[in-house]
Amino acid sequence: MEQLFSYGTLRSKEIQRQIFNKVLTGTPDQLLGHKLKSLQIEEEFGMADYVVVVPSKDPSDIIHGVVFTISDTDLAKVDLFESNAYKRVQVTLESGAVAWIYMEN
Fold first, then answer.
1. What is the residue-averaged pLDDT of the chain?
2. Of 34, 39, 54, 105, which is most buried by a Cβ count within 10 Å?
3. pLDDT digits (tens, 9 = 90+) for 29-42
4. Structural domain of residue 15, as residue ranges?
5. Alpha carbon of 16 to those of 31, 38, 52: distances in Å?
């Protein structure tokens, strides 16, 4: 099983049903020393606004999100869902948990 930290779209129950065919149960957590940056991604019907995690020079910057425990198969589904504007990396969260997160590519 893998830990996945979500700070945006993947927290949506509708998106979870679309990707995993189920709703995930998660635990609130935070990522320190990072911030969110606006990002435009071209989609089927035009440009869409999203956010992406980037490292911050301020160690007190916090991103609030949710940690989900998912299977390797489900993690591969998320890789397909996320655009190539993101890369998957492991981070250590405020709780001490090590989780995958999608950051700026």
1. 89
2. 34
3. 999 999 988 776 56
4. 2-104
5. 21, 22, 18
Q: What is the pLDDT of residues 66-83, one digit of tens each?
A: 999 999 999 999 999 887
- Helices within the chain (DSSP H only): 13-20, 72-81
Structure tokens at 84: 């190539």
For the chain, how many structural domains are there in total?
1
Q: For the domain that residue 59 is a member of, what is the CATH number?
A: 3.10.490.10
Taking Cα atoms as reference points, which of 11, 7, 10, 67 lies closest to residue 35?
7
Handedness of CA 73, 49, 103, 9 (dihedral sign): negative
3-state secondary structure of 21: coil
